[in-house]
Design brief:
- This is Histidine phosphatase family protein.
- It is a single chain.
- The protein folds into two domains: 31 residues, no CATH class; 177 residues, Phosphoglycerate mutase-like (Rossmann fold, 3-Layer(aba) Sandwich).
- 42% of the residues lie in helices and 14% in strands.
- It contains seven helices and six strands; from the N terminus they run ααβαβαβααβββα.
- The chain is globular, with a radius of gyration of 19 Å.
- By secondary structure, the chain is of the alpha/beta class.
- Strand 2, helix 4 and strand 3 form a beta-alpha-beta unit.
């Protein structure tokens, strides 16, 4: 009887430890309400909007992954397509200026998200963002450091005056880079120029963009 009771006590302790760890991954998105005042600076330009692709649960990324063959990749669901259309429509309605072309990782799901949001002719593939997809806590330290240093350079680059740069790519592992990002979640970055770093000024859910209107 005592053994059984002790078992339940240990289970309770484990749950107390695990639940906060899982909750912490989403905390940045859940506990910080979006300040509508962020819209006025965005309308002036000078920011980078780093966006994760839409919901993608159709198929799998196969060992023989080929960027020119979507059948070898995990692709957007119908919900993911709807999300991408809503994202583009919401930002246009908010009169936020963009630098074209927008950037996209070479995966079909990122290219399609960008094309649905802004039009296929306004999308440019940047192979660098594949390195973010490959990034994990198991990545060799030297490779991880090189990728994060290159990311820093990208995010320090100030867009042309009066515009914002949009990047469609991937979520990060917890604790690395820009952290975990939900589907069509946006990390708003303020670049400060090469060698001067950048600031993260906001994290915005898709439905929050629509809610600004």
């Amino acid at each position: 009887m005592r053994l059984k009771k002790n078992r339940w006590i240990w289970l309770f302790i484990v749950l107390l430890l695990v639940i906060p760890m899982n909750a912490a991954a989403a905390a940045e998105w859940l506990i910080r309400p979006v300040n509508p005042s962020i819209l006025d600076p965005l309308r002036q330009g000078g920011y980078i909007l780093y966006v994760r692709h839409g919901e993608a649960n159709v198929g799998d990324d196969m060992p023989n992954l080929n960027f020119d063959d979507c059948r070898t990749q995990r692709n957007l669901s119908e919900e993911g397509r709807r999300q991408a259309l809503l994202f583009g429509e919401s930002l246009r309605n908010l009169r936020i200026p963009f630098q074209f072309p927008v950037q996209a990782s070479p995966f079909c799901r990122t290219r399609e998200s960008a094309a649905l949001a802004f039009g296929e002719s306004h999308v440019q593939v940047d192979p660098f963002w594949y390195r973010i997809y490959k990034l994990s806590n198991q990545t060799p330290p030297a490779e991880q450091a090189n990728t994060l240093a290159a990311l820093r350079t990208k995010l320090e680059t100030i867009p042309p005056p009066g515009t914002n740069q949009v990047i469609f790519a991937h979520s990060f592992p917890e604790g690395l880079g820009l952290g975990e990002i939900p589907y069509l979640g946006t990390v708003v970055v303020k670049p400060k120029g090469q060698g001067n770093g950048y600031d993260i000024v906001g994290r915005i859910f898709l439905d929050e963009w629509a809610g600004f209107q």
